[in-house]
Here is the input.
Amino acid sequence: MDGKAHFIMNRVIVLSIFCFSLVGCGADEPVYDVPLTFQPYVDRFIDMAAEYGHDIDFSDTGLTIRFRERVDLETGGVCRGDHLIEIEKVFWEDLSEFDKEGLIFHELGHCELFRGHRNDKLPNGEWASRMRGSPIPEGSNAVINYAGSRLAYYRQEFFNTALAAPDWVDRRAEYDDPAILNRIEVVSIQNQETFEESAIGISQGNFEIEVDMISGTSEGFVGIQFMGAANDDRIRVGFNRDGLFAIDSGNDVWGLMYLEEDFDKVLDGANKITIRRQGDFYYVFLNEEFIYWFDYKIPQRESVASLNAGTLGVPWYMSVKVYSI
Here is the structure.
């Protein structure tokens, strides 16, 4: 190497050292851009991660969460890589607080924990992980009850993929439970197209709502709604003539909890819906068969009302009874 070449090489080395001392010679610092809308869920993710041995603060990677510029209702959110998350605004505004957390945790599961989708199920048929995602297996839907007694398991599973199935997978109820034999009728409605009835006092103990009905001429979702004064705090159980069966609640309660499409337990004619509160839980039966349970929450209003989300036609309520157990 001649003198000139040696001089140039020394300058390159010196400049390289200088650049590294300035954090990459002008390389971009990690960007943290998380609006207040999303920050509580990120903070919760950091706290939960710490409980399970993950030290996360995004100082080394940065994090950007923003609403997507173009509407795409196919996905509620997406991790673009490099710790960039985009959220569908229309989708976000229709979520409960629990589902908002679940969505942010899901995308951080991709971006920060480098997790892919997990589409296996627990022994009771519920999803094994909040990381479930496309492609959803045929015959399944994406609904997860990410609230109440189920919440702790789904949170922990983000950080512990070897987590054992939770005890609640074995919870169920029998329609002919001897505990209900001494029930006392407090409301009785016969042969109505629509109704709304107060059921004062039933929230103080166990109770049962039993509805015999047909979808009638309604082309929409029909059934029963109870325990609230408005859509955001009511619980709804119902079906349509195409076999869709759902258990749903307003965003001030739990959100959408259960959904079955082409459900063969929905009969062509009359169907019986039974909702029973026993202790800390509601149990839902369809045509005297146990379907699902979810957590009890003190109601905003003690009421029982018809539900018809269709635009044409009305259902027919042959019998509606409320019992104190």
In short: The two ends are 96 Å apart (CA to CA). Residues 126 and 144 are 7 Å apart (CA to CA). The chain is about 20% helix and 30% strand. The chain has a mean pLDDT of 89.
